[in-house]
Write a structure and sequence with these properties.
Structural class: alpha/beta
Bound molecules: fructose -6-phosphate
Low-confidence stretches: none
Mean pLDDT: 95
CATH architecture: 3-Layer(aba) Sandwich
Order of helices and strands: EHEHEEHEHEEHEHEHEHE
Strand order of the largest sheet: 5-3-2-6-9-10-1-11
Number of domains: 1
Strand content: 15-25%
Largest sheet: 8 strands, parallel
Helix content: 25-40%
Radius of gyration: 17 Å
CATH topology: Rossmann fold
Shape: globular
CATH class: Alpha Beta
Length: about 250
């Protein structure tokens, strides 16, 4: 695991965007795994800026998003399909046919999970997976007590996640109770992973991911067993990490 601690949320996005852009320059036909939520917005903004200013080319890139709420159509402004269009895809030159998210409207979620896994495999697997982290240390929507061997599947959201995500809805009662998410195994199969976090409310989860026991109680802790993970966090999200760790990792100002 490499750890990059940044001074600000914007700097976190910049560091993450640099890694994504580097991946695309090295391999124009990269397969990216992408996340929604507040955390990666500054990364998407930066990638859009790099596309506009120096022509970062997404025309050969394929993307697979981590998750989607069950029962939400792509036209619903609260769907993750919609979020990705608004925050990223409509601002870059990615081909619509190269963009994939799990189908939250599928009738059979077991079949949908299998279809999604096959699509990822057919594209050669994910080269670089971008992750946020929940306050309960979930990655994707893999909530505590996760089965580490799971692939894309239907999940029931934790009460903590429902409360956290209610900020995007009128109130918590409107937050869907179920989602379809890549599983931990899907995430662990990615060649490279970057985990992003900002803000004090993520400090405990970041501690669990980086220094805690590897346990299904803290799903992100499994990343300690991945061969290539960069953890990019602002200083607030890093505040519970012991300073002995800071010393051996990179800290960036900006
Ligand atoms: C989103 C996802 C989730 C979020 C996490 C943090 O696609 O899979 O794991 O990354 O819930 O959300 P934010 O960034 O809104 O704090």
């Amino acid at each position: 695991m490499r750890l990059v601690i940044t001074d600000s949320y914007e700097q976190m996005g910049l560091e993450a965007a640099n890694i994504v852009a580097g991946q695309i320059y090295l391999k124009p036909g990269s397969v990216l795994g992408l996340a929604t939520g507040s955390t990666p917005v500054s990364m998407y903004e930066r990638l859009v800026a790099v596309h506009r200013t120096v022509g970062l080319d997404f025309s050969e890139v394929t993307t697979f998003n981590l998750d989607e709420y069950i029962g939400m159509s792509p036209e619903n402004p609260q769907s993750y399909h919609y979020f990705m269009q608004e925050n990223f895809f409509r601002h870059i030159n990615i081909k619509p046919e190269n963009v994939f998210l799990p189908d939250g409207m599928a009738e059979d979620m077991i079949a949908e999970g299998q279809r999604y896994e096959k699509l990822i495999a057919d594209k050669g697997g994910v080269d670089l997976q971008v992750l946020g982290i929940g306050q309960n240390a979930h990655i994707g929507f893999n909530e505590p007590d996760v089965k580490f061997a799971a692939t894309t599947h239907k999940v029931e959201l934790d009460e903590e996640t429902i409360q956290a995500n209610s900020r995007f809805f009128r109130d918590a009662s409107e937050v869907p109770r179920y989602a379809i998410s890549m599983g931990i195994k899907t995430i662990m199969m990615a060649e490279h992973v970057i985990l992003l976090a900002n803000g004090k409310n993520k400090a405990k989860a970041v501690y669990q991911a980086v220094c805690g026991d590897v346990t299904p109680e803290a799903p992100a802790s499994i990343l300690q067993l991945h061969r290539d993970v960069a953890v990019i966090v602002d200083k607030e999200a890093a505040e519970l990490l012991p300073s002995s760790i800071h010393g051996v990792y990179i800290s960036r100002k900006g």
